[in-house]
Design brief:
This protein is α/β, with parallel strands linked by helices.
């Protein structure tokens, strides 16, 4: 079952017509007149997105943009895996695996594909070129539903190593954001003979509960811990729900595109291009993967046999403004080979979209020292 098959996105018009009908008869919730964002995604913001979705958004244009890149599917460990595979025109390019997160999709990386794969055509050094592999996480988008338990970050990492092997690459790098920042270090852990380095936009290392480790932190890192505590209390409801009862939520999301949009938009936010928000949400809706994508959180939360030793493959961080604030002393406990640590005062959690050149430059610089 190691066959790699060509794939092309071709959503039936009946699915798009059904979506339009649902958007035309949406039943809105109520909202307090002074609510703002205090209670979650605001009604005016969501209504504006839905109006754009129904009256001005063009899925076929985005479908064509995605189909401009070579796409494939293959079965790995019993699971369908969809991926883009973009070979650089530079023959000596380094293979690079890019892993998206939630609530995004492969769309997350569209703005960096050209500069990473063909720097010569984008004012860069051809020596920095990458052959790109961008899979849809199992349970997300065009990889389709997962059909059994256990698709956590560790199993996905092993699937990614197998995918790279099937494509014939011997040495490769990995990059990830959000869930991809959890998966990518595990790719390095499970395939250290072939992974030259791992680059991420967050390092999710947390306090272990020993008061002494907090006392020894710098004032700056103390503030990061305070922000983390605030976030877990005030912004982490989606994580808790998807880690414990994803199916309960999924019944609503599978039946309501506006519900799916509201759930995704809580992290994508009003400062992101509306069509970027809508396109990522469209892929969840059209593939009906609300449940299976949310299950990744459950599988990770309930994973058994978690590795306890630190990773050793070279690791680099590019941390962007307003994002999860990685704390280096904790990161160095979990990863013994951090060779690059850059913090930027611009961009966001979705830096590949809103700070693409900065991210590209950081990825290039990190792997330049490892080729």
């Amino acid at each position: 079952m190691s066959e790699i098959r060509d794939f092309r996105i071709d959503i039936p018009q009946t699915d798009l017509d059904d979506l339009d009908e649902r958007l035309a008869r949406v039943r809105w919730t109520d909202e307090l007149p002074d609510a703002g964002n205090d209670y979650g995604v605001s009604l005016p913001y969501l209504q504006g997105l839905v109006q754009r979705w129904h009256d001005g958004y063009d899925w076929r244009a985005w479908e064509a943009r995605l189909n401009a890149y070579p796409q494939f599917t293959t079965i790995i460990d019993g699971q369908n895996v969809h991926f883009l595979h973009i070979r650089s025109p530079e023959p000596d390019a380094t293979p690079l695996l890019l892993t998206h997160g939630w609530p995004t999709t492969i769309v997350e990386y569209l703005d960096v594909l050209g500069p990473l794969s063909d720097p010569r055509a984008h004012g860069g050094d051809p020596a920095d070129a990458f052959h790109l592999v961008i899979p849809s996480i199992p349970g997300f988008g065009f990889s389709g539903h997962t059909t059994e338990r256990g698709w956590n970050r560790y199993r996905i990492a092993k699937a990614w190593a197998e995918l790279i092997r099937r494509l014939g690459y011997e040495r490769y790098g990995a990059h990830g954001n959000d869930c991809g920042s959890l998966i990518s270090p595990e790719v390095g852990r499970c395939d250290p003979e072939h992974v030259i380095g791992v680059h991420v936009t967050q390092i999710f290392s947390f306090p272990v509960g020993d008061p002494a480790e907090l006392v020894s932190l710098s004032e700056q890192d103390q503030k990061k811990v305070e922000f983390l505590q605030w976030w877990m209390k005030n912004g982490g409801a989606y994580d808790k729900l998807q880690s414990t009862a994803p199916q309960t939520l999924a019944h609503a999301l599978a039946d309501s595109p506006v519900g799916q949009l509201g759930w995704n938009a809580q992290l994508l936010g009003p400062n992101i291009d509306p069509d970027y928000v809508l396109t990522n949400t469209m892929i969840y809706w059209l593939t009906n993967t609300a449940a299976s994508s949310a299950r990744l959180y459950y599988e990770d939360f309930h994973a058994a046999d978690r590795p306890t030793e630190p990773t050793t493959v070279p690791l680099g961080l590019a941390n962007f403004a307003g994002d999860f604030q990685s704390i280096r002393p904790f990161a160095e406990r979990d990863h013994k080979n951090i060779v690059s640590w850059h913090v930027y005062d611009t961009g966001s959690h979705f830096a590949a979209h809103d700070a693409p050149q900065l991210l590209v430059d950081d990825i290039r610089g990190f792997f330049r020292q490892l080729r």
